[in-house]
Structures are given as structure tokens and as C-alpha cells.
Design brief:
- Helix content is 41%, strand content 17%.
- The longest helix has 19 residues.
- The chain is built from twelve helices and 13 strands.
- With 349 residues, the protein is an alpha/beta fold.
Length: 349
């Protein structure tokens, strides 16, 4: 079957660097696309050709309405819509409307990113679990900055375990803050991306924004705060319980981690894995599971994540990252509950 879709504007962003976006559309749906003047001719099996034409028509309509797509954004959107027949490009773009976070205007690029932001808005405790590059930390910091600027909270607390990623760094020189700062650098990077440098420095000086290792949280009660625990897979069960019980009145907490990158000593159980087991089903707590489709870094990162997943599944190592649902039920990948949906695949909104 052959269909034609007129694309009068936005051809450059539609094709992407070295035609990567069109190649993604072709490989994802098993069709061929040929540009003739300002018209794309789509050829393939009838359902796939109709699906590809629908995506392209959505793109053409959105561009006419003034939407501007960067190459990276469109590539992320196309990965979602070619992989999930229930999702439309228009629905994904429009429902993922831009939000202002300090000097940044961001829009969620995948369904799970949108669900993650919505979960943070609705719940006081949210767990974001998934591979590197899915935006867990970045979006959490963005939501914290938004809450601070709109005066919904009076401070942001950013914390993570000071665990070395498979290296022994020895004794670091300097003050305590200088010793732990290297571990916390990703949190600073996100902050500087959201706010002007001088503003971040002033907020840090006044302790309106506090960046500290998890060990510094013991004994505190964090009221009117937006708390982010990053790299939570490297916390111990005792540390996880301690930080979760620091939450005070009018506070939100976001806990992020990647269970495939645990740097704890052998035999030490991850606090994130423990919390997912203990807190599953507790009202007011939301778990959002990310997967390789949510990776928004270089396209190679998505392939790397998928390759590691296949390797661990084939070697049996993936069984260590599963949870028992109960008597008579099979194992299911962590996390079993995503906003009440007992599946690793998020249904279309």
C-alpha cells in the first residue's frame, strides 16, 4: 500500500541528522518513505503504512500550529509512538505540555516521564526507578525548583549516598563539603541548568538549597521541603528507612535509583530494593518504572541499556532484581506497581 503525506514545513527536523528520524520511522513500522518535492510517499503493509501516515500527518499539523521540534525531542517522541500503537504523536506532544522550571522550559518526552511528573504533583512520596538517561534526577530537580520559585516549599534538600562506583578513591583532601562534593556533582549540574549561577550560589549560601550526603540527614525533620534522594540503589535499608522518616509537614520527597547499578559491597542489600518490597501498595506512595524506551540521551545509550538487559536475562542475573508477588504467583520485574497498574508496560493515556 502506498500513501502520500504533504509536509510543507519542518522537513529538516522531521528527517533529523543523517535522516535518523525517518530511518527510525521506517524500521519501527516496516515501511519505506521517499520524499518527492514536499510530499512523503509511504509504502508498506496497509496497517503500518496507515500508522506511519497518521504520525506524519500529526507532525505536519503540529508544525503548522507553531510547535517547534528539536531533533532530539522528535527522535524521543518517534521512539514512543512507533513502539506503542495506542499512542499518537499529537497526544504525546500536547499532553506533555511545556512547563517552566526556572530559566528552563521543559516538556516530558515519553509517557513515563509525563506520568512521573504527574505522580510528583499528586503524591508526597514518589519512587522513580529505571536505567541511566531517563531523566529521573533532572526532572525531579526541575520540579523542586518549580516548587521553590512558586513558594510551595521554602527549601530544596538534595541528597545521595557517598558510595564509590567500583573504585577506591582513598582519603580526599579538604573540608567535609569538599570531600563529598564530587559524589553530589550531578545534582549541582541539574541546578545550574535550571537557575542562574549567581542565584544558585546565593541559595546554597543561605541553605535554601542544601546538597549533602545521606548520612547528614539523621535526626532531622524536614518541613516545607522538597527532598530528592538520588542514586538510592546505593543506600542501605537502614539509610532508606532513616531518610524516608525525615519527611515533615508540607513536604514532598522523590527517591530515584537504578537497580542495575548497585555499588554496595557484596552481600549488602540495596535500600531501594528493600523499600520497593516493603512499601508496595501503601496509599499515597507512587512507583514509576522507567525502561530503555525512556532514555533521552544519545541513541547509543538506549541500545547499551537494552543490550545489558538482554545479557542479564540470558545469564540469569536479572532474577536478582525481581520481586515475589505472593503465593502461587510468578515473579515480576521490579517495580510491580506503577500508579496502580500491575505491569512493566505503561498503557496509553
Amino acid at each position: 500500500m502506498k500513501l502520500s503525506v504533504q509536509i510543507s514545513r519542518g522537513i529538516e527536523s522531521l528527517f533529523g541528522t543523517r535522516d535518523e528520524n525517518i530511518r527510525l520511522l521506517e524500521s519501527g513500522l516496516g515501511v519505506q518513505a521517499v520524499l518527492v518535492d514536499d510530499t512523503l510517499e509511504i509504502e508498506g503493509d496497509e496497517p503500518n503504512a496507515i500508522r506511519a501516515a497518521s504520525i506524519l500527518e500529526d507532525y505536519a499539523g503540529l508544525v503548522k500550529e507553531g510547535y517547534v521540534f528539536s531533533n532530539g525531542d522528535l527522535n524521543s517522541y518517534l521512539r514512543v509512538v512507533t513502539g506503542d500503537p495506542e499512542v499518537t504523536l499529537r497526544g504525546l506532544v500536547v499532553s506533555g505540555k511545556q512547563r517552566n522550571f526556572g530559566k528552563k522550559a521543559l516538556a516530558p518526552k515519553t509517557i513515563n516521564q509525563r506520568r512521573y511528573l504527574e505522580a510528583i504533583e499528586r503524591n508526597d512520596l514518589v519512587f522513580g526507578i529505571g536505567p541511566a538517561g531517563t531523566g529521573k534526577t533532572y526532572l525531579a530537580v526541575a520540579m523542586g525548583v518549580s516548587a521553590l520559585l512558586s513558594k510551595r516549599v521554602t527549601r530544596i534538600i538534595l541528597t545521595r549516598p557517598a558510595v564509590e562506583a567500583g573504585e577506591k578513591l582513598g582519603f580526599l583532601p579538604g573540608t567535609i563539603q569538599e570531600k563529598v562534593d564530587p559524589y553530589l556533582r550531578p545534582l549541582y549540574d541539574a541546578l545550574y541548568d535550571m537557575l542562574e549561577v549567581d542565584k544558585v550560589e546565593k541559595l546554597l549560601e543561605r541553605n535554601v538549597i542544601e546538597v549533602a550526603p545521606i548520612a547528614f540527614m539523621r535526626g532531622r525533620t524536614l518541613n516545607d521541603s522538597f527532598i530528592i534522594l538520588d542514586e538510592a540503589q546505593n543506600s542501605t535499608p537502614e539509610q532508606m528507612k532513616m531518610i524516608l522518616t525525615r519527611q515533615g509537614f508540607n513536604s514532598k520527597m522523590v527517591v530515584n535509583g537504578d537497580l542495575t547499578q548497585i555499588d554496595l559491597p557484596p552481600g549488602k542489600r540495596s535500600g531501594l530494593l528493600d523499600a520497593a518490597d516493603v512499601l508496595r501498595g501503601v496509599e499515597g506512595i507512587s512507583f514509576v518504572q522507567f525502561d530503555e524506551r525512556d532514555v533521552v540521551r544519545h541513541t547509543l545509550v538506549q541500545k547499551i541499556v537494552k543490550a545489558y538487559e538482554r545479557y542479564y536475562e540470558n545469564s540469569g542475573a536479572g532474577r536478582q532484581l525481581s520481586l515475589k508477588l505472593g503465593d502461587g504467583q510468578a515473579e515480576t520485574p521490579l517495580v510491580p506497581m506503577i500508579d496502580g497498574v500491575s505491569s512493566g508496560v505503561v498503557p496509553a493515556a
